[in-house]
Amino acid sequence: EQEQEQRRRLLDVASRFPLPTGCRFSYGTAGFRADGATMAPAVCRAGILAALRSLKLASAAVGIVITASHNPIGDNGVKIADPDGGMMDQQWEPFAAALANAPDPDALLQLVLQFVKDEGIPLGGHHTAQVLLGRDTRPTGEYLLDAALQGINAILGAQAIDMGILTTPQLHWMVRSKNKGIKASESDYFTQLINSFRRMLELLPKDKGGDELAKKLIVDGANGIGGVKLEQIKAELSGLDIIVRNSGKEGEGILNHLCGADFVQKERVTPHGFGPEDVGVRCASLDGDADRLVYFQMSSSSDNKVDLVDGDKILSLFALFIREQLDVINNNGNQVDKSLPARLGIVQTAYANGASTQFLKGLGLEVVFTPTGVKYLHKKALEYDIGIYFEANGHGTVVFSEDFISQLESLSNDLSSQAANSQYHAAMRLMAATQLINQAVGDALSGLLLVEAILQYKRWSFQNWCELYSDLPSRQLKVKVVDRSSIVTTDAETKVSQPSSLQELIDKETANYTQGRCFVRPSGTEDVVRVYAEASTQVEADSLAKSVAHHVERLLG
Ligand code: G16
């Protein structure tokens, strides 16, 4: 009987959200994404999928975020979080895509039954499943939330918990915490950020000399959810005077329109709402769902250009800080002969500015590359005791292995009798950083607080940070083509394998430029092909990008 009921529910929900003819969803860089008005079938089916995933993983909580992140306000999408808080395991992506595209209720039912059989998923109401849901501020969010709830409720034994309007990283953090048995409400999240940030500041060296960091920080909230959340906690962030612009309040502007991390990083100009009075003030920019962070500063009032600190430089700052703490702990001259062996790994993508990679390698760090997408970088970073990953666009975080954290804890205990000792302080600083940074996924709010704490620790101004190395001039372009999937890439997206003539053309163009580097890849979040070029001058980078974009247009129409 249960079996009949399960079948009936699946057929029923599929008929409530039919797939329009000709509609095709593809599982992209971070889940499904398209015009918000067309997304209900895919979101409903993502609900079914998330419940099945929870059933498969012994009823552990799984997450769904309804967001299209950096995309325009009319788009929407769905990201799925695994029990560890990371992106859904890639092994399930083909099933996710097949489910989203099942043409009719019968096909959907058969697909689910077959998958459940193949994967040994206990469907039928004898086990429970748990799905936490969050959404951003998009107008289609509520409607799509309902579609997701209906999908989840179509699986017997599944429980949906609506956590409300959240940043994407908050929901990922909640999923991770819940499965670790840690309290996982929004106020628990805020408490963890506020307390670990305060702890970082308490551990600042007292005798370092130099100027104190200016307290004023202006944050561009992209008119999304990140600014709203920052407004809620900023008064409790000691040592910082935060002003939120593009906060999403009525009249401030449109989500991601001429503002936000994607805009600032790609255009390298001030976002909407910033003007000459902000010259020389440290500024940060979040994206629509607050999983990306970049910093910038206006250097002159005569134009709207900015000095940009992108994900690569945030990564470099984190790497320097962590390495410094490890060096203090492991210094042979320490009074206490304790050490903390750690394999530190840096993960970047082809978009990483060449100068950043050179800088990091110059520090003797191990740098590896993956294709674009947090799902790839995060997975790679987990191979290290401490993995630091960032995309140039501002997505990134630091992950610490459980083994490393337990060694750090025991070292801190051993050293606690030497509380005045620099080795102890370094260990405590690392410990606070593991608490402050969101280890589930890149998180603009927690990343911002870690940046601020490290700048204070180093007594670095924005300018000091920006001058860590000079970015090679670069340019990114988008090209509209008939079918972007006709481009196939290899070698962590640095080479095109199809169409076969394209790579030859790229190589030929690139050879004309000093320090030239160029690659193209289909976006997994927008219907465009992205072109990235780097060269020794801005004029050259622009010209290389333009000529390769032209080849893409000519070949793919
Ligand atoms: C998502 C992914 C990122 C990726 C970005 C752009 O970010 O999580 O890892 O860098 O898409 O991807 P693509 O170049 O394929 O369009 P977000 O912030 O849009 O969710």
TrEMBL record:
GO terms for biological process: UDP-N-acetylglucosamine biosynthetic process. InterPro entries: A-D-PHexomutase_a/b/a-I, A-D-PHexomutase_a/b/a-I/II/III, A-D-PHexomutase_C, A-D-PHexomutase_C_sf, A-D-PHexomutase_CS, AMG1_II, AMG1_III, PAGM. It catalyses: N-acetyl-alpha-D-glucosamine 1-phosphate = N-acetyl-D-glucosamine 6-phosphate. It is an enzyme of class 5 (isomerase). It holds the Pfam family PGM_PMM_IV. Substrate binds at E391, A392, N393, R521, P522, S523, G524, T525, R530. Residues 54-91, 126-179 form the Alpha-D-phosphohexomutase alpha/beta/alpha domain. It comes from the Eukaryota. Its cofactor is Mg(2+). Coiled coil: none annotated. Its EC number is 5.4.2.3. Residues 184-294, 310-460 form the Phosphoacetylglucosamine mutase AMG1 domain. The active site is at S69 (phosphoserine intermediate). Mg(2+) binds at S69, D287, D289, D291. Binds 1 Mg(2+) ion per subunit. One of its GO terms (molecular function) is metal ion binding. Keywords: Isomerase, Magnesium, Metal-binding, Phosphoprotein. Belongs to the phosphohexose mutase family. PANTHER family: PHOSPHOACETYLGLUCOSAMINE MUTASE. Interconverts GlcNAc-6-P and GlcNAc-1-P. This is Phosphoacetylglucosamine mutase.
